[in-house]
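Form 12-C: Joint structure prediction
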Amino acid sequence: MTVRVGIPRALFFYLYYPLWQAFFEALGAECVVSAPTHRGILEVGATRATGENCLPLKLYLGHVRALLGRVDYLFTPLIRTLAYEEENCARLRGLPDLVRALIPEAPPILAPEIDVEGGTWKLTSAVLDLGLHFTRNPLRIRKAVEQAQVAHRTYETMLQRGIPLPEALSLLSAGKFGPFEDTIEWSGKTGGSDNSNRATFADSDDLEEPLRIALVGHAYNLYDEYVNHRLIARLQALGVALFTSAAVSEETARESIAKLDFKHYWTFEHELVGAAAYYLGQEQVDGMIVVVSFACGTDAVMLETLQELSSRFNVPLLNLVLDEHSGEAGLVTRIEAFVDVLARRKTLGVRHTAVSGTA
Amino acid sequence: MKVSFPHLGMLYVYLQPYINSLGMEAVVPPPTSKRTLDIGVRHCPELTCTPCKIIFGNYVEALEHGADTLIMLGGMGACRLGYSVRAQRDKLLALGFQFQAVTFSLLDAQADLVRVNRFLTGKSLFGALDSIRLLIDAMRAVDSLEQLALTVRPRELQRGETDRILREAWHAMECCRTRDDVRLFGQTYREKLAAVPCDPSREVLRIALVGDPFSILDAFFNMDIEKKLGRLGVEVNRWFWLGGSLDLFPIKDWLGLSRQKRAARLARQYVRGDIGGFAFSTVGETILLSQEGYDGLIHLAPFNCTPEVVAENVLLAYERHSPVPILNLSFDEHTSDAGISTRVEAFTDLLHHRRALRAREAGGVQ
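Section 2 - Result
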């Protein structure tokens, strides 16, 4: 019987699922992913954790709970550090411990400790330990790691070529692209060029080209349609060209932020700020929407950096805070008003420069 | 050089003689007040924790009083203070203050003391050994006075006597110049505290405070919880003492015999490793203290403190079979004094009741 590994559809899932899937499948295991977030998942998660926890963690717990009974192992990596001189949020550093404490009925947890600062040997032994749950052959584990790396590179290439993240995920997990095929041409609709279902918006219809909006936020905020009330689809329906932070490669993000002489403290936030810097500097976006979750400690300070960045480039910024109570109507009103403002600015010819006083 | 630092419990009491002995002027920021907090709230990110805001307010007020060098709290560690210290420095510079700064991390107190000392004096640890020994002596003296006060306060006959002596002591400390002064100071005030008229028959509860050090040490932030408890007839103990974290030759620690190491071993049952901030120690100390005969524990944390919220949640698993009740209190700029008083009073009532119940059960068995 194949071993079933449960993967909650939350947090890192959006970043690393193709990698994990390739790894586990190469070792003969089967990946079971929880269903997309729905009301029940959030409710279960919110009752398990104390009130001060952040929304992403509550969702994670809800997804873990949804996997119970269907899996032999639960995969909850402990991602301590991903780069030198950088940190990860305390909640991510305690993730497996939190799951064990708050969901005691969970199946055995596979929690490899990813600690780049700890050195290559620590990393290798963590992955080896993980693989030994499935096979006794170290060479097979090594092969699985290689396949996982290829899958991850393919996934990143797909994202950078403009394939929306949900599509990229479903294509890869369905195995439509062989893991070793690196040349992908995407002919479907991308976020930017999809204007087929444009709503009639007086201001934005007058423009020759669509508004360019950077959408910055953690992938688990941008692509969890239940939590963000289908934000991406709504923005597309308003006829804007979207540039999501998920489509910027790590290298580009790090380069862009280094140019601006900014340094952030946490790895994921550093990359998000870098993505924002890239879109503001190179892509000449008209506006920026930042999606953060309530009670997220790192988002709270990342927002500050982004606000500074947006005023430096003289680009308006809309901040959306997601929580378990946020109403749909409030969100829709705000994004519509924001798009109106941007369209007006554009027709009035407000320059996109770093010079102050033009607005 | 006019050196200043944020408030952290009694930090100012012993940093003053140390800085003076280096031949510099110590600028003590005004006691944390509503104004301090308002400054912080105005300039810090909205969703960051209140200690960051209070500390920022301290910096501004210290600089307004003419300080030109700041010892800033923060450093590498997954708590947001590590990030904030950079942002705070930039913000202060943007506000037009001119100063030089050195960071001090409580998590790495020993190494950072050497670094701060080098920054201030340009000398190595041994070059300024006298000043450092003065600092450590002063810390120990202050800690022992505070410790004594915590046991005397619930038993005092005339309410407020202990606090009066403590206030007098902190004033007297300003005049200490040498280690002999400090020794004399400690002795005098320990005797004075011991001589406070007490009611030995009073039934006193014992509660230990765990959680984030800032919340434990800062009386403005935690609504003076130690005094509140003391007046309710509770003997308080803290897991964190500033002096205790500064042992220059921690031999017991190296041998793995220290309390810290014991707590770490216990914590490992619940947490795989360092989470960030003091959360790992909090978990270990909570388990350790709950087995040391206290009537109850109170876990203090700033609202939305990332490491402490993790600790609190991990401890939910322990609380299911913990021998004593644990009360979680979180504080932010909107916390009201009455709210904390009510909860603390209810908790002590519960503990009194629980103790009486236990006593009756024990009596029944005999």
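Section 3 - Comments
The two ends of chain A are 65 Å apart (CA to CA). Residues 112 and 125 of chain A are 9 Å apart (CA to CA).
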